[in-house]
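== Sequence and structure of one protein ==
=== Format: two labelled lines per protein ===
==== Data for this protein ====
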Amino acid sequence: MKIGILAVQGAFREHEHMLQKLGVDTLYVKKQEHLEGVEGLIVPGGESTSIGRLMREYNLIPPIRELAKSGMPIMGTCAGLIVLAKEIANGDEPHLALLDTVVDRNSFGRQRESFETDLDIPALGAEPFPAVFIRAPHVKAVGDAVTVLAYYEGRIVGVEQDHLLGFSFHPELTGDDRIHRYFLQKVEAWTKQPSA
């Protein structure tokens, strides 16, 4: 299994460390050719406008959309959730526009208002997940195909749409690997399909 981590900007190294602890091969994706042979992709936290601009500059958006259309699993965390969303609430142009959601940027305040909290995420089991929120977005609306995985104070902060996952927080900044393992289960299922 080889997982690509979009590495144009943001917290990509932390995702790499988490996946390496799980014994998974990783590859930094900075150019189109880096997508060859990748069986799953993580879009990390960072600054969504910068990530989107650099993805356009390196012409990464069309091939990632094609891979998503083929069923390849993609997970976005924090800014990565914004990059995946079909609509950004304040009217900014969407980037990958894959996840049928409307996302509101910086809805939990500035950097100094960052916090950690335990979230109930039933898909991961009974144990609460220690979620780290840093200038986090939240999901304002979801399409019919989207399943809500987690809420925080009534706001949607975790979603799933078939092979796509999006989280408002930073699972890679915790010692809890369950979200990454949940993503890897999707990758494993996809790679076992005859068409993959």
Summary: The first helix runs from residue 12 to 21. Residues 2-191 form a domain with the Rossmann fold fold (CATH 3.40.50.880). The chain has one domain: 2-191. The longest strand covers residues 155-161.
